[in-house]
Automatic annotation (TrEMBL):
Reaction(s) the record says it catalyses: Hydrolysis of terminal non-reducing N-acetyl-D-hexosamine residues in N-acetyl-beta-D-hexosaminides
Gene3D superfamilies: Chitobiase/beta-hexosaminidase domain 2-like, Glycosidases
SUPFAM superfamilies tied to this protein: (Trans)glycosidases, beta-N-acetylhexosaminidase-like domain
Record GO cellular component, one term: membrane
Keyword Hydrolase included in the entry's annotation: yes
Keyword Hydrolase included in the entry's annotation: yes
GO biological process, one term: carbohydrate metabolic process
Source organism per UniProt: Arenibacter aquaticus
UniProt xrefs under InterPro entries: Beta_hexosaminidase_sua/sub, GH, GH29D-like_dom, Glyco_hydro_20_cat, Hex-like_dom2, HEX_bac_N
Residue ranges occupied by any GH29D-like beta-sandwich domain in the UniProt entry: 554-606
EC number in record: 3.2.1.52
The name this protein goes by in its record: beta-N-acetylhexosaminidase
Keywords: Glycosidase, Hydrolase
Length: 618
């Protein structure tokens, strides 16, 4: 019997009590095992919260904030064990508990709630599961269902990447989303801090990186791909950067939320902002060279010179500061999509190439990566790179982010070649792609990545042996920033697909269930996101419409579709908006050419769930 049917059965058995249990049903990500009993724990202001002494400084303020914001409750907090008979919620560290790192046991009983884990991450994650049983309305005294949850992460790496170079997003935005994403057990925040269109991290040794490199000419309103290059004279008003103090604040805030922050400094390509700030790192002097921060599009000639010693000396200075600032053992150096056209014309690059018997520019890239790898290792960090760093000699000892698919299959070759690998498939995990019919979504790459496709992703390729599977550290969703100038738009692209990615990264495939997930979003998480003031997309409810014109008969065959299950499509053919009194879609139908079709998706209560799709047949 599937999990889903077990739940249904449980609702039926519980009858009137089902309201309490129905809330518990909405877990995202779905835990490994959940069992309910009929009893309840009454959470009210007389409940004492007990935390391990060594975590009291971080955990108490966090828990106090959440109990207050979620439920309006000011509880008492302590690291001392509860008195006999005292109603309590206890967070307990126990090295013997049979869960993995970051896993937990959550036991809700009438007199107590106990979260037991081996580590801080487990206690934090157990609390997030408990929070998902909180009602969203009528906070105050609440009844929580008695239950036992045993839960473990599928992957140790459950990441989200945000590109803040193409469009800078302020520190407050970063903090907000670390808070929200961590409540879905995301534990890695990969911060893509540099690219052609802006350098976003203060480096004290090289102030020009942010004085010049963080700012670009304003091309707002012009399509990203059609922007005219900036001139030296025009004002540079678009951008921003994080000071090292900002970054420390983000790291500390993330640590409380069990999130590790991984910086990315993208070299040797994607470096136009860097060479604009320090032109001597470019390959050669050209009288008409443009050393302005890119304003959009692709920036040719964006690579730093791979042949000059000064490049490596400079990068050493950058990496030293970045390594000192970020406590993560990882440091991401990019390595992707390097345009090598200037290397081919550069006397320094060509000199190094022949001195080292390098066959071509691919091998020169490999030479570059190996030199940078040495610098990273000297800082006691593990280098991460996009999968292009596998080319040429590769980079033994590095960790790979496998993003390409098709001509390259790093999701298979990297673990086969012994590399720890993080799956970031551009086909399933690039949240910059639009998530509904393109004509109904904001501008973006014209590829549709609907929520269900993200949710359905299986990060482990079936070709891998168990030993190779062990090298897969996890999964990460990436939001590239070309088309997301505003915070609202970033949120729209991130949510709810980041929640689907969170479940892909946390839950075992056998507990995943699309219908349960989409229902959980509709009934609980969208309301929670509303409360967090997150501008999520409801594109999963959009009706996809298509038709085939039968010219022989002069009629159109219309097809309506939705990625969701359990909801009904209603449509009209006379131009009016559909309601549940309109025609229910039961299968493709025939309509006359020029008919206006309007369709919407409705839940059982007759509520329109998404936007109305409007098409006019030709
Ligand atoms: C990438 O998408 N260039 C990593
Ligand atoms: Zn060069």
């Amino acid at each position: 019997m599937s999990k889903y049917f077990t739940y249904i059965l449980f609702f039926l058995i519980l009858g009137f009590n089902h309201q309490v249990v129905a809330q518990a049903y909405h877990f995202v990500p779905q835990p490994e095992s959940v069992s309910f009993s009929e009893e309840v724990f009454i959470l009210d202001k007389n409940t004492k919260v007990v935390v391990p002494k060594k975590f009291r400084g971080v955990l108490i303020p966090y828990l106090a904030e959440k109990f207050h914001d979620d439920l309006g409750l000011n509880l008492t907090y302590s690291y001392r064990n509860p008195e006999k008979g005292e109603k309590h919620i206890q967070f307990k560290l126990d090295k013997r508990v049979s869960v993995k790192d970051e896993g937990y046991l959550l036991e809700v009983q009438p007199a107590s709630i106990v979260v037991t884990a081996k580590d801080y991450g487990g206690l934090f994650n157990g609390f997030q599961t408990l929070r998902q049983t909180f009602p969203l309305e009528n906070p105050g005294t609440v009844k929580l269902p008695a239950m036992t949850v045993k839960d473990n992460p599928r992957f140790a790496w459950r990441g989200i990447m945000l590109d803040v170079s193409r469009h800078f997003q302020p520190k407050e935005f970063i903090l907000k989303h670390i808070d929200v994403l961590s409540s879905y057990k995301v534990n890695k925040f990969h911060w893509h801090l540099t690219d052609d269109q802006g350098w976003r991290i203060e480096i004290k040794k090289y102030p020009n990186l942010t004085e010049k490199g963080a700012w670009r000419a304003d091309r707002t309103g012009v399509s990203w791909w059609q922007r005219e290059k900036a001139t030296a004279e025009e004002p540079k008003t678009v951008g921003g950067f994080y000071t090292q103090e900002d970054i420390k604040e983000v790291i500390a805030y993330a640590k409380v939320r069990n999130v590790e922050v991984i910086p990315e400094i993208d070299v040797p390509g994607h470096s136009k902002a860097l060479v604009a700030s320090y032109p001597h790192l470019f390959c050669y002097d050209e009288p008409d060279a443009n050393f302005e921060v890119a304003v959009g599009g692709k920036a040719p000639d964006n690579a730093v010179c791979a042949g000059k010693d000064s490049t490596y000396e400079f990068l050493e200075g950058v990496i030293e500061e970045v390594a000192a600032l970020f406590p993560s053992k990882y440091l991401h150096i990019g390595g992707d999509e390097c345009n090598k056209s200037n290397w081919k014309k550069c006397p320094y690059c060509q000199g190094v190439k022949s001195e080292n018997n390098l066959k071509d520019e691919e091998e020169l890239q490999s030479y570059f990566i190996q030199k940078v790898h040495k610098i990273v290792k000297a800082q006691n960090k593990t280098m991460i790179g996009w999968d292009e760093i596998l080319s040429g000699q590769g980079a033994p000892g590095a960790t790979i982010m496998a993003w390409r698919r098709g001509d390259h299959n790093p999701q298979i070759t990297a673990p086969q070649d012994g590399y720890p690998t993080i799956m970031t498939s551009y086909k399933y995990m690039y949240l910059s792609q639009v998530q509904g019919p393109t004509f109904m979504e904001p501008e973006g790459p014209k590829v549709v990545l609907p929520l269900s496709k993200v949710y359905g992703h299986e990060p482990i390729p079936e070709q891998l042996t168990p030993e190779e599977v062990n090298r897969v550290l996890g999964n990460e969703a990436c939001l590239w920033g070309e088309f997301t100038p505003t915070q609202e738009h970033c949120e729209y692209m991130l949510y709810p697909r980041a929640l689907a990615s969170a479940e892909v990264s946390w839950s075992q495939p056998n507990v995943k269930d699309w219908k349960r997930f989409q229902t959980a979003l509709e009934e609980w998480h969208f309301k929670r996101l509303d409360q967090e003031e997150v501008n999520y997309a409801n594109s999963m409810f959009t009706v996809y419409a298509s038709y085939a014109l039968d010219q022989l008969k002069g009629e159109a065959h219309v097809y309506l579709n939705t990625e969701t299950v359990g909801y009904d499509i209603f449509y009209t053919t006379g131009g009016e908006d559909p309601t549940v009194s309109s025609i229910k879609y039961e299968g493709n139908f025939i309509a006359a050419p020029k008919t206006p079709i309007k369709a919407g998706l409705f839940n059982k209560e007759g509520k329109l769930l998404g936007k109305i799709t409007v098409i006019r047949l030709k």
